[in-house]
Amino acid sequence: MTIAEPSTPVQHEAEHGDHPPFIAHHFEDANHQFESGKLGMWIFLVTEILFFSGMFCAYAVYRSMHPEIFSYAAQFLDSKLGGINTVVLICSSLTAAWSVRCAQLGQRKGLILTLALTIIGAFGFLGIKYVEYSHKFHDGLLPGKYYQVQSESVADVGLAPSVTGAEGDAATTEADSGAAGAHAAVEDEHAGSHAPAEGPEPDNVKIFFGIYFAMTGVHGLHVIIGIGVYIWLLFRAIRGDFRPDYYGPVDFTALYWHLVDLIWIFLFPLLYLIH
Amino acid sequence: MSDHEHAAGGAHVMPVKVLLGVWAALIVLTVVTVWSAQYDLGRIDLVVAMGIATVKATLVALYFMHLRYDKGFHTVVILGALLFVALFVSMSLLDRAAYQPEIDARTVDLKAR
User: Fold this and answer.
1) Residue A96 to chain B, least CA–CA distance (Å)
2) Pick from A163, A169, A135, A160: nearest CA to A149
3) To the nearest whole angstrom, how far is the Cα of A53 from the nearest Cα of chain B?
């Protein structure tokens, strides 16, 4: 045993039996471990796709049966915020893909930066989602029995900023109490601009919001889980765990993150951009 | 030079140029989706939106997820999943009106109350 060079690979491996510390005992070498992990991740992504397909199926069946509900309800979704969120998620996907490159090339600073940017993007997505959700909660645009939209508040969507003075205050304090008069005035003033183009409200709009909250909610849950995993990766990257022959976790998490992005790429036009 | 970088295990390293190119394409396609949604294209509305989304998804899968440079088996795995999704959704759609009489009866029932 050569004690002169304590950090030779041979010496290093000798300390951990016959393999470097990042390789689990049951793998032959780094490549074997990486390929097994990668296949495992792809199989997991398959289960994720099939899992989400249940909700896409519910969407497809319900939309094909009741297209009028979808065109009516989609007007309550803010396609601007949805579009911004799509861009945020695409940027976050870019930094995730870039983090894999940094890890492969052993660029530790770049890896830390790209992982941090990915986390920031994820938080940005959730922040925008929070704004959207609180609007829906505020307006009673909720699934099932929680759906309670008065006709005034339906016409109220997006009108508050253009209302002045006392009327504006009344409008923002919501439809319940003595604001009905103000709302009636607002309704007259803006008739046709934001009013539902499709005429009267169809039955069972609440089911659209059931589908909306189920799909975006489960997707949002995936974003939250992704943030958790990325914080763990960031911690390990700062600790210096990753090296060009060991970057599996960065690669596999990026695959998961891209799938979350992929699902949103389909959710956005399906939910927000309906005529 | 940067087109032929490889990591230790021989894995393909995605060049920065490709990453940024794919990102730019995804942004442009998002803008196109939002822009085209302003126009009522009638029946092909959904086809256009889903077509653009599929192109975007393919770009993400091929480049961000490295499928183009990866083992072919991973592509087989993912296409297999998509095949089953297609079967699942299309079979369910075939059968979608099967319970309509019960739903109608129940709706009438509820309204009568």
Assistant:
1) 8
2) A135
3) 6
Name the pLDDT band for B53 (thresholds 50, 70, 90): very high
**Residue among B8, B53, B77 whose CB faces A46 most closely:** B77
ipTM: 0.89
The mean of the pLDDT values for chain B is: 88
Q: Is the pLDDT of residue B59 over 70?
A: yes
CA distances A263 to A50, A162, A260, B25, B101, Å, are 12, 36, 5, 18, 34
- Cβ–Cβ of B93/A98 closer than 8 Å? no
Nearest 5°: the CA angle A218, A130, A92 is 70
The b-or-e profile of A169-181 (16+ CB within 10 A means b, else e) is ebbeebbeeebee
A144 vs B92 pLDDT, higher one: B92
Q: Spell out the domains of chain A, with CATH numbers in brackets.
A: 41-144+201-275 (1.20.120.80), 150-194 (no CATH)
A104 vs B7, B81, B100: nearest CB? B7
Among A265, A272, A275, most B C-beta atoms within 10 A, so best to mutate, is A265
Read off the amino acid at residue A165.
Answer: G
Name the residue among A105, A255, A262 with its Cβ closest to that of B57. A262
User: Which residue matches tokens 């914080």?
Assistant: A231
- Out of A31, A93, A245, the one facing B60 most closely (by C-beta) is A93
Burial class (CB in 10 A: 0-12, 13-18, 19+), A259: buried
CA distance B36 to chain A (A): 9
Q: CB–CB of A78/A135 below 8 Å?
A: yes
Question: Which residue stretches of chain A have pLDDT < 70?
Answer: 1-18, 150-199
The answer to whether A171 and A179 have CB atoms below 8 angstroms apart is: yes
- Contact (CB<8Å) A254/B5: no
